[in-house]
Amino acid sequence: MLERIAGTGPLPEHLRDGVVAIGNFDGVHRGHQAVLETALAEARQRNRPALVLTFNPHPRKFFRPRSPLFVLTPPEMKAQLLNNLGFSAVVEQAFTDDLSEKSAEAFITSILRDNLGICHAVTGFNFHFGKDREGGPEFLTNAGRRHGFGVTLVDAFRDEAAHIISSSGIRQLLAQGHVAEAAGQLGYRFTVRETVINGQKLGRTLGFPTANMRLPESVELREGVYAVRFRRADGSLHDGVASFGRRPTVDDNGAPLLETFVFDFSDSLYGEDCSVSFFSYLRGEEKFNGLDELVAQMRRDEQEARALLAGMRPLSALDASVSF
Ligand SMILES: Cc1cc2nc3c(=O)[nH]c(=O)nc-3n(C[C@H](O)[C@H](O)[C@H](O)COP(=O)(O)O)c2cc1C
Ligand SMILES: Nc1ncnc2c1ncn2[C@@H]1O[C@H](COP(=O)(O)OP(=O)(O)O)[C@@H](O)[C@H]1O
User: Which first-to-last residue range defines the signal peptide (predicted)?
Assistant: First the structure.
């Protein structure tokens, strides 16, 4: 199991002298995975632990606190993905005033050398660090020579159409409801994890009980109806159909809610931490003339989602570990 470490002091002995992938890795997309797989391979070869050094909050949120940032993988989700990829630990370095003021050299001596005691660093071609982004790949490589650790830089990863994959591109796809395309770039299905809360208890009277979740306000997923896979806290997986929206038919206001009708299931889910993986966008949210019309459409949504999900295959080993 992956260890989550706050990064406030020296690492425990068993994690020192490790191979460390450094970056924000928001989304843990296929470009990030190229960096992460390089670190994993290097660690296997040296027979040393594989670690990730990442930052929380996302540095962009630190520097621009008032402009909302759609974080694709909150710390918990990122940790789960890194665990599934095979890392031993993730250092969730607090991004504070103090860290933002550190020079590139101070970042290397106090964090990489003293706290983490790394033997090898792996980063992407464009990783910058230290006050005013002073340190880049070349700085890191030279510092490694001086301080006695190796450095591997991983080139930009391109998808099949030679587009560079980026977290901001994936955020835009999700905002347009293109969850299948986003999955192609993430290498797994976009997945959110939240606690199931109480709703108006109307769903069960319609024959469509729905597990309700509030997503963070910054999540910019297109409102609409999706074919999804639902994972309970005990790890069991269920197919379902979910609506993310403001429910114009029953109440016209309020923040959007994610509501999942879980197929062939009848237990209570209240208070449980569950995850929802998005496979296909089915349609936009509509205002119906009454509940009968809504229920008729929900039946069609269910049939469409069942058929789509039956044909889905994992995109990768990571995808298989998340939603299969
Ligand atoms: C598959 C599905 C599709 C839905 N589509 C719509 C819709 O197009 N318009 C709408 O107002 N509500 C839609 N809803 C939300 C329902 O209005 C909501 O689930 C129902 O009112 C039950 O509310 P409750 O969970 O608070 O009891 C949909 C829900 C599901 C599960
Ligand atoms: N097939 C199912 N799909 C989703 N939730 C279910 C299902 N069967 C039982 N439940 C339970 O019922 C609740 C949803 O019922 P519903 O009447 O829609 O109430 P609420 O308005 O509180 O969401 C879920 O939170 C869960 O605890």
Answer: none
- Mean pLDDT of the region 239-256: 89
Average pLDDT over residues 104-128: 96
- Determine the distance separating the centroid of ligand 2 and the alpha carbon of 98, expressed in angstroms: 46
**pTM exceeding 0.90:** yes
**Does any ligand 2 atom lie closer than 6 A to the CB of residue 213?**
no
Average pLDDT over residues 288-304: 96
Q: Give mean pLDDT, residues 110-124.
A: 97
Which numbered atom of ligand 2 lies nearest the CA of 259? 23
| pLDDT tens figures, 21-68 | 999 999 999 999 999 999 999 999 999 999 999 999 999 999 999 999
Let me know the angle formed at the C-alpha of 204 by 194 and 249, rounded to the nearest 5 degrees.
Answer: 80
Using CA atoms, how far apart are residues 62 and 308, in angstroms rounded to an integer? Answer: 40
Task: Give the atom of ligand 2 at the shortest distance from the alpha carbon of 212.
Answer: 23
Whether 252 has a pLDDT exceeding 70, the answer reads no
Query: Ligand 2: distance of its center to the CA of 306 in Å?
Result: 19
Query: Domains plus CATH for the chain?
Result: 3-154 (3.40.50.620), 178-323 (2.40.30.30)
Alpha-carbon distances, residue 47 vs 2, 206, 207 (angstroms): 17, 57, 55
Helix (H, G, I), strand (E, B) or coil at 4: strand
A 10 A CB-CB count for 94 gives: 13
d(CA 130, CA 133): 5
Is the sign of the CA dihedral 22, 215, 316, 49 positive or negative?
positive
ipTM of the complex: 0.90
Measure CA 205 to chain center. Answer: 34
Please tell me the residue having the least CA distance from ligand 2 atom 24.
211
